[in-house]
Amino acid sequence: MTFQRSAFVDHEVITRYKLEMDRLRVRRKELEGFSHDLDRRLDYERDSKSALRHLESICHRVADRLDNMSFEELQEILRLVVDRFTVENGTARIDTVIPGPKDEGQLRARRSELIEPQRCG
């Protein structure tokens, strides 16, 4: 093989190598993005499970004592969890806040419900 032919083959091999390296870099970035997304989903899943366990614990403690609570105690529970109550166009909306586990924020919920039937015609 002549020197020119050898140099051409080497150049071709190097060009293919560089293209493959570029393709692999792009793929690595894609995989890093997927990995980051999976980590975020895993964190969200853990946080959700922790919040659910905490909420279940609160519900069980309140349910066990609910029948024996005085009217004042029931009012106090409502004051603790109801953040806002609004009525608009015949629909009541209750925004609730339940303290989460230590230093994990609060659990928030919003529920809307029709409070008076709509009349037809």
Tags for this entry?
121 residues, alpha+beta, 2 domains, 62% helix, 21% strand
Describe this structure in words.
The structure is a single chain. This protein is α+β, with helices and mostly antiparallel strands and 121 residues long. The chain has two domains: 1-68; 79-121. Helices cover 62% and strands 21% of the residues. The chain has two helices and three strands. Strands 1-2-3 form a three-stranded antiparallel sheet. The longest helix has 64 residues, at 3-66. The model has no long low-confidence stretch (mean pLDDT 83).
- Per DSSP E runs of 2 or more residues, the count of β-strands stands at 3
Radius of gyration: 31 Å
Percent helix, as a range, is 55-70%
**What is the number of helices?**
2
Number of domains: 2
**Uncertain regions spanning at least 5 consecutive residues:** none
Q: In what range is the share of β-strand residues? A: 15-25%
Mean pLDDT: 83
User: How would you write the strand order of the largest sheet?
Assistant: 1-2-3
Assign the structural class, choosing from mainly alpha, mainly beta, alpha/beta, alpha+beta, or little secondary structure: alpha+beta
